[in-house]
Design goal:
Elements (H helix, E strand, L loop, with lengths): L2 H22 L2 H5 L2 E9 L2 E4 H13 L3 E14 L2 E16 L2 E18 L2 E18 L10 H4 L7 H9 L15 H14 L10
Parallel strand pairs: 1-6
Antiparallel strand pairs: 1-2, 3-4, 4-5, 5-6
């Protein structure tokens, strides 16, 4: 196996472990996937990865139901840096107006990696939110959404954002990248700059 192939394999293993450890509540190993200066952005959270690990664990212990599924994966590796993209689906279950609902949000994880002291680790994770939907678990339930609240969120995570506000999260209404638009184009530029040796992994927010 070539060095690049080995690096790509190690990166994909970290991407897979992120989902397994997160969804299984394996918090010690989950925290080890990041470098110390790692940053995590999500609809409900934008802060250092160490704080994300703490908040994710707190939600888990309170019964927050968020799980992930992964699909196609690719990684561009240049020396000790890499950008990985992985198709994913975020699935969250929670009550919306007293009706238990599932939201499925499809997109990509866009990850900034670096190899330090011989170890690959995550430096920044930025989901790209492409499209989503909401469904009552009971198909006979009559779910009525507030059109004004729904419209506050971008198309890519409109229903996910709606559900998350119902359980008390402060959801970011602008700036998150979707399938197209200036936000995702900015992210792509930051990824290219990272591979070219930029001092930081863009401007995460």
């Amino acid at each position: 196996m070539s060095d690049v192939a080995a690096d790509k394999r190690a990166i994909q293993e970290i991407v897979d472990q992120w989902v397994i450890y997160s969804d299984a509540g394996d918090w010690d190993r989950f925290a080890e996937l990041w470098h110390d200066d790692g940053w995590m952005s999500a609809t409900w959270f934008q802060a250092p990865a160490s704080e994300f690990c703490k908040r994710r664990r707190e939600g888990w212990e309170k019964g927050v139901s968020i799980i992930h599924f992964l699909g196609a994966h690719t990684a561009d590796v240049v020396g000790t840096r890499a950008i990985a993209q992985t198709k994913m689906t975020i699935s969250q279950r929670a009550p919306v107006h007293d009706i238990i609902c599932d939201v499925l949000c499809t997109g990509r994880f866009y990850d900034f990696f670096e190899k330090r002291d011989g170890r690959w680790g995550m430096v920044r994770r930025q989901p790209i939110y492409e499209k989503d939907r909401i469904d009552p678990v009971d198909i006979n339930a009559n779910l009525q959404l507030d059109a004004e609240l729904l419209a506050r969120f971008p198309e890519g995570y409109r229903h996910l954002g709606y559900l998350q506000t119902q359980v008390g999260y402060a959801v970011k209404e602008t700036g998150m990248p979707g399938l197209k638009g200036p936000e995702v184009e900015k992210l792509y530029r930051e990824g290219k700059a990272w591979l070219a040796g930029s001092a930081s992994p863009g401007e995460p927010g």
